[in-house]
Amino acid sequence: MSTHSELIAELIEKLESDVLTYYEGASESAYRAWTITAGIAFLSSVASALTAALISDASFGTYGKSLLVVIPVIGAAATGLLHLYKFREKEALREEGRIEVEDIILNAKSLLSSCTSENDAKVAFQQIRERYRQLELNQHRRDITLRSDEVPKIKP
Q1: How far apart, in whole angstroms, are the C-alpha atoms of residue 88 and residue 37?
Q2: For labelling, which of 9, 13, 82, 99 has a CA lying 20 to 30 Å from the CA of 36?
Q3: What pLDDT score does 1 carry?
């Protein structure tokens, strides 16, 4: 049978090794996806304008027309991906989660070090567990909101 101090230590280990790692990776992936797709959208706009300005009449008849169709289509696809997958919003959501997990870990370590009895540890464990549960519920709800294109309601 584990003591509550051991349960806190196990929870801290899980938060550090699994949860924090997930939020760091998810935040970084969303940031990279946003950077790449936004860059593609921007560069394709510039490329299509430059192509239109610099292409010769002879080239337009052979491959130029195709370029002036394909380049904007690539930009539109990148813009569509930005809207559909909301990479910037996902990065912000996961980064907030990472910051909160780091704070939960520090708070858990502080609570663990200040426990003088099994009852103190029990209360501390329940506080840490509940805070982690609230974080996960909040992240889940906000993720669903992002996927639904629903405008979040501000609670009074």
Answers
A1: 10
A2: 99
A3: 79
Question: E-strand spans in 42-134?
Answer: none
Nearest CA-CA partner of 135 in 7, 20, 3: 20
Instruction: Retrieve residue 154's tokens.
Output: 């501000």
Kindly indicate the confidence band of residue 5, based on its pLDDT and cuts at 50, 70 and 90.
Answer: very high
- 39 vs 35, 79, 124, CA distance in Å? 6, 10, 46
Extract the tokens encoding 47.
Answer: 């490329």
In angstroms, what is the C-alpha Rg of the chain?
24
What is the C-alpha to C-alpha distance for residues 125 and 128, in angstroms, rounded to an integer?
Answer: 5
Q: Which percentage of the chain shows pLDDT scores above 70?
A: 95
pLDDT for the residue numbered 155: 61
- For 136, the token pair is 């996960």
Report the alpha-carbon distance of residue 87 to residue 91 in Å, rounded. Answer: 6
Identify the burial level of 2 via C-beta atoms within 10 angstroms of its C-beta, where 0-12 means exposed, 13-18 middle and 19 or more buried.
exposed
Which pLDDT band, with edges at 50, 70 and 90, does 43 fall under?
very high
